[in-house]
Specification:
4-stranded parallel beta sheet, signal, receptor, membrane, leucine-rich repeat, repeat
Amino acid sequence: MILVSGQCQSDQQSLLLQLKNSLIFNSTLSLRLVQWNQSNDCCTWSGVDCDMAGRVIGLDLSNESISGGVDNSTELFSLRHLRRLNLASNLFDEAQNIPSRLANLTNLTYLNLSKAGFVGQIPIEISSLKRLVTLDLSCYQDAGLQLENPNLKILVQNFTELSELYLDGVNISSHGNEWGQALSSSLPNLQVLSLSNCYLSGPIHSSLAGLQSLSVIRLDGNDLSSPVPEFFPDFPGLTILSLADSGLYGKLPENIFKVSTLETLDLSSNDLLHGSLPNFPQNNSLRTLVLRNTNLSGTLPDSIGNLKSLSKLDLVGCNFTGPLPISMASLTQLQYACGLVIQQFHWSTSDFSGLSNPITICGLVIKQL
């Protein structure tokens, strides 16, 4: 029997219908499950992707208001051809652990269980999913997910293909040398590292410098208690660096502002971090610069006008002094500017009229000299 491309195999359709019947979900809020109907080819169902042979390889049940649990949904773990599974943003019971039977889905390359209500220890069985490219287990802080046994090192030890790791809000409770070396020794292809509010401590280990493919680093809300590493500007493709409220201290390396690929830099709420702004080179990619509540000081350089892509600038609580550079009037993409101090007669709020609209200006102080 030759299958028409995309025509769902009968056993696959049967498994999906059984899965639907086993799940508890709010039919008035559901956008996908509620539409699944035996009279239609399951490969056309919302949230379902099939391969050329009609086997289900992708399942997106995010934001489906699913409650109860999935541990008893044997049909889900029988979809052995699944490559992508998304159960994010559901309402699983507070006592629901991440099902260890996910290990049955050995073809998974994408697994997203973020903010779905799961609690407890992340099961060691997840570490057997060796083909994962993206893993997102992020949760709301203090929601109850933790990495103790297995710890981070054991969880990621087999993830040699992983490029994106999101564990925001998971209680990892690991020292700098432990989590740093765990990542650097097992994840050579890592591009996105997002470990905000994970109860990590510092200092940030130098072994992270070996992860040269990193483009996104988010470590907000941890107690890193260290200076900003000198090697951070050396990542050739770095686009996002977010280290807000992470106990950073010492002088900020000026080279961090000169990374040509960097689009977002957030160092806010590190009140022991000091330094000044450099002369910004042309062709800078910065879109978001947030230095709120740091101890950075000095004057704003005239070269800030080189930040042609800048849309958000937050300097509230900093110690910058001196005149506001005229060159800022050329920042036509600026939509949000906070903590600015105007100290020249020829500057007034009307000088912002050439900037993009709408623009939010907050914390503006005008000092007539």
